Amino acid sequence: MKKMILLGYAAATLTVGVTAYGVQMNIPTTVVNGTDVFSGPNFTVSGNFGLSDFISVEGIGTVDLNFGNFTANAAGVITAPPVTNTGNNPGQTGPALPGAPLPGLPYAALLIGNLSLGFHQLFPADASAGLGSSAPPTDIFATRTIGDIFGTTIANGTVLEFRVNDINTSDNSGSFTVGNSGVQNVPDGWGMLSSVLVPLWLWGGLLLGRKNRRPASARFAQ
């Protein structure tokens, strides 16, 4: 019986950890043009969001910088041409020079934020966004916590703006369409905790079943 109580307590504790990832911030479907470098479309946040709440988004399309000599998806991963004006190739990124909203981070990356919070890269430039691939996707997904993106909570009524990371606008074209993802990849913490919870629940069911199958005389003797 003590084992079952401890098992239930552990499962309950882990379940609380999982459900702490509670609320998804709504990202309205928005078109962000390649020229939206120093200002861009915005939306007003509805609700209060803590560090463990999350955004689950999809970014479709590419933007062209330098008259098409640098084309990238929403993570800033290059999709064309074979050699860009920065000397990079598809599947790589090019760090933006000073003068961009986020110098040092990938050119063409889709940013989110405002002047108070600062601007932050929305889609990580990783393997899921085509980093290291010779044919990166132009339809990408990301699920990230508010804390991971902004490093602080987001209050109801906050105005968030989208921008493209570049140093000018005159030679840019193309666009991204960003909005809530239809495929909500669960944040890493969910997967880690569920990998513990599922075996724990199965083990608990096995122990309970074995206990219930014991002879009545053995149960009464306890």
Straight-line N-to-C gap: 10 Å
Number of strands: 10
- N-to-C SSE series? HEEEEEEEEHEEHH
Helix content: 10-25%
The Cα radius of gyration reads: 24 Å
Write down the domain tally. 2
Tell me the overall shape.
globular
Number of helices: 4
Biggest beta sheet summary: 6 strands, antiparallel
Mean pLDDT: 84
Helix-strand makeup class = alpha+beta
Low-confidence segments, given as residue ranges, are: 3-20, 185-202, 216-222
**Strand portion:** 15-25%
Describe the structure.
A hairpin with a 3-residue loop joins β6 (110-114) and β7. The chain is of the alpha+beta class and 222 residues long. Helices cover 24% and strands 25% of the residues. Strands 1, 3, 4, 5, 8 and 10 form a six-stranded antiparallel beta sheet that branches. It has helices at residues 2-19, 146-150, 188-212, 216-220; strands at 30-33, 42-44, 54-65, 70-72, 78-80, 110-114, 118-121, 139-145, 159-164, 173-180. The chain has four helices and ten strands; from the N terminus they run αββββββββαββαα. The chain folds into two domains: 1-20 and 197-212, no CATH class; 22-185, no CATH class. The model is unreliable at 3-20, 185-202 and 216-222 (pLDDT under 50).
